[in-house]
UniProtKB/TrEMBL annotation:
It comes from the Bacteria. This is histidine kinase. It comes from Streptomyces aurantiogriseus. It is an enzyme of class 2 (transferase). The keyword Zinc does not apply. CDD domains: HATPase_UhpB-NarQ-NarX-like. PANTHER family: NITRATE/NITRITE SENSOR PROTEIN NARX-RELATED (PTHR24421), NITRATE_NITRITE SENSOR PROTEIN NARQ (PTHR24421:SF10). It is found in: Membrane. InterPro entries: HAMP_dom, HATPase_C_sf, HATPase_dom, Sensor_HK_TwoCompSys, Sig_transdc_His_kin_sub3_dim/P.
C-alpha cells in the first residue's frame, strides 16, 4: 500500500462509496417518504462510515507532507545532515526525495562558497598583518628612534614631554604588533597548533579572567586547514567568554578521542539564554566546522552554568578535508593561509560588555 499513488487511494475510496450507494439504490433497500427513523439511521451510519474511512485515507496519505513541512521549517544549512524521512504514496515519496537532493546541493554549495569567502578573508588578514608589521611598525620604530635623538638634545623642560611621547609611541607600536599577531598567528606557523593554543590561553588570561589549558600529547596528524580551524574556533570561543559571558574562569582543552580529536572551550559564565539568537561569531564557528566536516556543539556547562563549546573532528573527515599531506601539531614549517579560517576574534583584553548575545 505504501507504493500506491495518492490519486488511486482517493479514487478507490470514492469508487467504493459510489458502488455501495448504487448497490443500495438498485437493491431491496428502500427509503420511505417521509423517511422512517430506522432508514435515516442506516443512511447516517453509512455516510459516517464513508467519511471516517475517507478521513483516515487522507490523513495517512498526507501525513508525510506534514512531516516534510516541519523538516523544511527546521532545516539549517549550518547543521547539516538532517533529512526528511522518505515515506508515503509515490508522489509524496518523490517530492521528499527531491527535497533531500536539493538540500544536499544547497549544503555542498554553501560549504564551497563559505570556503571561498573564508579563504579570501584569511588572505586579506595576512596581507593586512604584513602591512601593519612592515609599514606601520617600521614607521613607529623610526619615530621612536627620532624621539630618542630629540630627547638626547632636549632641555630639561622638554625632556619629560618627549619621554611621554616616546611611551605613547611605544605603546602604539606594541598594540600594532599585537593586532598583527591576532590577524595572523605567527606562532601557529612557526611552532604548531599546541604552542599556538598555549599562547592563546596566556593571551586571554587577563585581569578578571583565568584561562587554564589542557593540551594532550599524542594527537593524530592534522592538516593545515584543520589546525587553522581549531585555532580560530578556540579564539572565537574565548573572545565570546571575555566579551559576553561575565566569566572569571575558562578552560581550553585539546585531546585525542576514539575517532579523531576534540577541542573543548568551557567557561563558568552566564551562557547564552535558550531564546538568544546565535550571533555572527557562533555562525562563523559553524561555517568553519563545515569546511573540514567537523561537528560543533554548544551546550550548558556540566554544573548547569557556563557554556561548553565542542569541536569534534573525525579521522575520516580529517583525511578528506584537504589534499595536503598531514603533519603533526608541533611542526615548525611555514604555512600559507588556507580555506577554513575566517575573520579574527576581537582583542581579548577589552572589558566584557553586558549581555549574553554571542
Amino acid at each position: 500500500m505504501a507504493h500506491v499513488s495518492l490519486f488511486w487511494r482517493i479514487f478507490a475510496l470514492n469508487a467504493v462509496g459510489l458502488i455501495v450507494a448504487a448497490a443500495l439504490l438498485l437493491g431491496p433497500v428502500t427509503v420511505s417518504t417521509p423517511v422512517l427513523p430506522g432508514e435515516a439511521l442506516v443512511v447516517v451510519a453509512g455516510l459516517a462510515a464513508l467519511l471516517a474511512v475517507n478521513a483516515v485515507v487522507l490523513r495517512v496519505g498526507l501525513a508525510p507532507l506534514g512531516r516534510l513541512g516541519r523538516a523544511m521549517a527546521d532545516a539549517d544549512l549550518l547543521r547539516p545532515g538532517a533529512r526528511a524521512v522518505v515515506a508515503g504514496p509515490v508522489e509524496t515519496a518523490e517530492l521528499i526525495t527531491t527535497y533531500n537532493a536539493m538540500l544536499d546541493r544547497l549544503e555542498a554549495e554553501r560549504a564551497a562558497s563559505a570556503a571561498r569567502a573564508l579563504s579570501a578573508q584569511e588572505r586579506e588578514r595576512h596581507r593586512i598583518a604584513r602591512e601593519l608589521h612592515d609599514e606601520v611598525g617600521q614607521t613607529l620604530t623610526a619615530v621612536l628612534l627620532q624621539l630618542k635623538r630629540v630627547a638626547d638634545h632636549a632641555t630639561d623642560d622638554l625632556r619629560g614631554e618627549v619621554g611621554q611621547a616616546q611611551e605613547a609611541t611605544r605603546a602604539g607600536l606594541e598594540e600594532i604588533r599585537r593586532i598583527a599577531r591576532r590577524l595572523r598567528p605567527g606562532v601557529l606557523d612557526e611552532l604548531g597548533l599546541v604552542s599556538a593554543l598555549r599562547s592563546l590561553a596566556a593571551e586571554f588570561t587577563t585581569h578578571g579572567l583565568t584561562v587554564r589549558h589542557d593540551l594532550r600529547a599524542g594527537l593524530p596528524p592534522l592538516t593545515e586547514e584543520t589546525e587553522l580551524v581549531l585555532y580560530r574556533v578556540a579564539q572565537e570561543a574565548l573572545t565570546n567568554t571575555a566579551r559576553h559571558a561575565g566569566a572569571d574562569r575558562a578552560e581550553l582543552r585539546l585531546s585525542p578521542v576514539s575517532d579523531g580529536v576534540e577541542l573543548l572551550v568551557r567557561d563558568n559564565g552566564s551562557g547564552p539564554g535558550p531564546a538568544t539568537a546565535e550571533g555572527a561569531g557562533i555562525r562563523g564557528m559553524r561555517e568553519r566546522a563545515l569546511l573540514i566536516g567537523a561537528t560543533l556543539t554548544l551546550t550548558s556547562g556540566t554544573d548547569g552554568g557556563g557554556t561548553d563549546v565542542r569541536l569534534r573532528i573525525g579521522t575520516r573527515a580529517e583525511a578528506g578535508s584537504a589534499p595536503h599531506p598531514a603533519r603533526g601539531t608541533g611542526s615548525g614549517a611555514d604555512r600559507d593561509p588556507r580555506a577554513g579560517v575566517g575573520e579574527g576574534a576581537a582583542p581579548a583584553h577589552r572589558s566584557p560588555t553586558p549581555g549574553n548575545h554571542r
